[in-house]
Amino acid sequence: MAYNNNNKKSFSLDNYETVKSRKVRLRNDFKDSLILPLPMSDLNYAGNYILMGALIWKDKKTFEQLDASAHERLAQISQTATPQNAGIALASIALITKADGAGYSLSIAGGAKADKHAWVENAEESAVGRALDNMGYHSGSASQEEMVKVEHMMQAQQTRVQLENQVNSMYSSLVQQGHNTQYLGQIISQTVRPFAQLNELAPDELEKLLNALQSAGNQGAYSASQQQAQQNPQAAPNFVPGAPSPATMR
């Protein structure tokens, strides 16, 4: 099912061919073809994003006949790839390995649906789709998987920005309320791995950090209410009677 140029006004995934279908077309044309997915980003950031490349040879013998130096160069360039230089890095790898097709893809962790837990697999499939597209095995401008991933990445990025803003706002609020910054630093270090900027943390880590800071704020408010109650026994409590105190909530 190829892209229908006469249906521009309405968007439907049915207008886009799947990567799996295009793989079948490649195999039918070149029975000895080879597809090689290629991780291209630092695994230390895998919880945040993944950069994947893909190389395709019409005849796998071309790849099998590469000498050791070509494999070494492939590994070296892959290790230096970043989202900013991915295109140049992959083009260099394709030339060195004599690939007939190459493509890359970036997926952000924590997207919707499949990207929530399988952003690495989705990045790989999208990279293969781009490599197939560059060889002429395309369905318009993108595959179904790529169109779905674009939507998921936009949602994931929006969620990330919201979480980062919430964490920043909560931290600033706690400091303004008089919470000790050293104490807050201890809470942060006990909750998530070391980081310099919030964008280094995965969405689930940002959620954990936000919950920890909120808990610290609740505990501080509870302690303040207890002190007020001791000073003024007639004062009304700030917490609903019978509800668990923040100190016991986890």
Keywords:
single chain; 250 residues; mainly alpha; 3-stranded antiparallel β-sheet; 8 helices; 3 strands; elongated; disordered N terminus; disordered C terminus
Distance between the termini: 52 Å
Helix count equals 8
SSE pattern: HEEHHHEHHHH
> Which regions contain 5 or more consecutive residues with pLDDT less than 50?
1-11, 224-230, 233-250
Radius of gyration computed on alpha carbons: 26 Å
Instruction: Tally the beta strands.
Output: 3
Largest sheet: 3 strands, antiparallel
What structural class do helix, strand and pairing data support?
mainly alpha
Question: Please, what is the average pLDDT?
Answer: 76
Bulk shape = elongated
Strand content: 5-15%
Q: What proportion of the residues is helical, as a percent range?
A: 40-55%
The strands making up the biggest β-sheet line up spatially as: 1-2-3
Written description of the protein model:
This protein has helices at residues 19-29, 60-64, 68-79, 86-97, 119-135, 144-176, 181-191, 203-231, and strands at 34-39, 49-57, 101-108. The protein has 250 residues and is mainly alpha-helical. Strands 1-2-3 form a 3-stranded antiparallel β-sheet, sandwiched between helices. Helix 1 (19-29) packs across helix 5 (119-135), helix 6 (144-176) packs parallel to helix 8 and helix 7 crosses helix 8 (203-231). The radius of gyration is 26 Å and the shape is elongated.
Which helices and strands appear, and what pairs or packs with what?
Layout: H1 19-29, E1 34-39, E2 49-57, H2 60-64, H3 68-79, H4 86-97, E3 101-108, H5 119-135, H6 144-176, H7 181-191, H8 203-231
Antiparallel strand pairs: 1-2, 2-3
